[in-house]
Amino acid sequence: MAHCVEDSSRYTYEEYKQTADWLLSKTEHRPAVAIVCGSGLGALGELLKDQMAFNYSDIPNFPHSTVPGHAGRLIFGNLNGKPCVCMQGRFHSYEGYPLWKVTFPIRVFRLIGVETLIVTNAAGGLNQDYKVGDIMVIMDHINMPGFAGQNPLIGPNEERFGPRFPPMSDAYDKDLRKLALAIGQELGFSEKIREGVYCSLGGPNFETIAECRFLSSLGTDAVGMSTVPEVIVARHCGLRVLGMSLITNKAVMDYNSEATANHEEVLQAGKDSAKYLEKLVTLLIQRIELNNNVF
Ligand SMILES: O=P(O)(O)O[C@H]1O[C@H](CO)[C@@H](O)[C@H]1O
Ligand SMILES: Nc1nc2[nH]cnc2c(=O)[nH]1
C-alpha cells in the first residue's frame, strides 16, 4: 500500500490536549492573545506583567529551542490589562523539526483559549524602499516550501482543529492590519511602518543574489525562514492572525555588492529596533477587541 506522508510520530490530539491541560493546571493565567517572538525580539516577552514563565524543556511534548536569539521560554502574563502568552523563541524546520513539530505550540494555544495570534519575525528586505529597522505589517505570504509539498497540515486532517482545505486568502486579519498601521502612524513611525508580502524559505542559508532577484520579481517584500507554517496552522484552527516583520538587513541584490547577510547583524538589528515593535505591540494589544472564545 502506498504510504507516503503518514508519520506515526506526529502528535495526537490527546498530546496537544495533555500539554494544554498541563499548562492550565500550572498557571491561573487564561491568555486570549499569543505572541511569537522572532529572532532577537524576545524582549517583547519582558513587557508582560505578573509573569509566570516555563522553560520549553519543562513543558510536556514541547520541542526545544536551538537557535541563538530564541531563549526557549513560554511566558504568561498581562499586557495593558489583556491576558497574553508569549513564546520567547520559535521553532524552525532548518533545526531539523518537521513542520507539525514547528507548529505544535499554536494548537496548544488554541486549546488553552487563545483567539488572536501575533507573530513577529526578523526578515531580509527585498523591497528596495525598505530600510533596516522598518516594520512590515504582513499583508500576505508566499509559502515557498509549500510549492515543494512541505506544509504543516500534511497528513490525516484533525477535524477537531479545522477543515481539510482551509482558505489562506484571508490569512492576515484586515482589521488587525489596519489597526497596526494606524497605531504605527499614531506613534510617529510613518517613515518605518510598511505593509507587504513575506516569503518563507526553508533556510538555514541566506539567499543567493539570483534567489533574491527571483523572489523580488514574484512580489516578495521581505524574506525569512519562519512564520508561514505557524500562520497556516493558526488559520486552520480559527485564530485571528497579525504578522509583523522587522527588517533586519537588506537582501543582497547586486553582484557588485560586498555585503553578506549574517545572524549577528540580524540579532543586533533586533536589539536596536525592539523598542519600536514593543510600543506598537503594547498599544495594539490594548486596542484589540476580544471575543472571549472558549474552544
Ligand atoms: O524568523 P525568525 O525566527 O525571526 O528568524 C529569522 O532570522 C534567522 C536568520 O538570521 C532565521 O531563523 C530567520 O527565520
Ligand atoms: N531567509 C532570510 N531570513 C532572514 N532573517 C533575517 N534576515 C533574513 C534574510 O535576509 N533572509
TrEMBL record:
<dbReference type="InterPro" id="IPR011270">
    <property type="entry name" value="Pur_Nuc_Pase_Ino/Guo-sp"/>
</dbReference>
<dbReference type="GO" id="GO:0005737">
    <property type="term" value="C:cytoplasm"/>
</dbReference>
<feature type="binding site">
    <location>
        <position position="249"/>
    </location>
    <ligand>
        <name>a purine D-ribonucleoside</name>
    </ligand>
</feature>
<dbReference type="InterPro" id="IPR035994">
    <property type="entry name" value="Nucleoside_phosphorylase_sf"/>
</dbReference>
<dbReference type="GO" id="GO:0004731">
    <property type="term" value="F:purine-nucleoside phosphorylase activity"/>
</dbReference>
<dbReference type="InterPro" id="IPR000845">
    <property type="entry name" value="Nucleoside_phosphorylase_d"/>
</dbReference>
<feature type="binding site">
    <location>
        <position position="70"/>
    </location>
    <ligand>
        <name>phosphate</name>
    </ligand>
</feature>
<comment type="similarity">
    <text>Belongs to the PNP/MTAP phosphorylase family.</text>
</comment>
<comment type="pathway">
    <text>Purine metabolism; purine nucleoside salvage.</text>
</comment>
<comment type="function">
    <text>The purine nucleoside phosphorylases catalyze the phosphorolytic breakdown of the N-glycosidic bond in the beta-(deoxy)ribonucleoside molecules, with the formation of the corresponding free purine bases and pentose-1-phosphate.</text>
</comment>
<keyword id="KW-0328">Glycosyltransferase</keyword>
<feature type="binding site">
    <location>
        <begin position="90"/>
        <end position="92"/>
    </location>
    <ligand>
        <name>phosphate</name>
    </ligand>
</feature>
<feature type="binding site">
    <location>
        <position position="122"/>
    </location>
    <ligand>
        <name>phosphate</name>
    </ligand>
</feature>
<dbReference type="Pfam" id="PF01048">
    <property type="entry name" value="PNP_UDP_1"/>
</dbReference>
<feature type="binding site">
    <location>
        <position position="39"/>
    </location>
    <ligand>
        <name>phosphate</name>
    </ligand>
</feature>
<feature type="domain" description="Nucleoside phosphorylase">
    <location>
        <begin position="33"/>
        <end position="285"/>
    </location>
</feature>
<feature type="binding site">
    <location>
        <position position="226"/>
    </location>
    <ligand>
        <name>phosphate</name>
    </ligand>
</feature>
<keyword id="KW-0660">Purine salvage</keyword>
<dbReference type="InterPro" id="IPR011268">
    <property type="entry name" value="Purine_phosphorylase"/>
</dbReference>
<comment type="function">
    <text>Catalyzes the phosphorolytic breakdown of the N-glycosidic bond in the beta-(deoxy)ribonucleoside molecules, with the formation of the corresponding free purine bases and pentose-1-phosphate. Preferentially acts on 6-oxopurine nucleosides including inosine and guanosine.</text>
</comment>
<protein>
    <recommendedName>
        <fullName>Purine nucleoside phosphorylase</fullName>
        <ecNumber>2.4.2.1</ecNumber>
    </recommendedName>
</protein>
<feature type="binding site">
    <location>
        <position position="207"/>
    </location>
    <ligand>
        <name>a purine D-ribonucleoside</name>
    </ligand>
</feature>
<comment type="subunit">
    <text>Homotrimer.</text>
</comment>
<dbReference type="InterPro" id="IPR018099">
    <property type="entry name" value="Purine_phosphorylase-2_CS"/>
</dbReference>
<dbReference type="GO" id="GO:0006166">
    <property type="term" value="P:purine ribonucleoside salvage"/>
</dbReference>
<keyword id="KW-0808">Transferase</keyword>
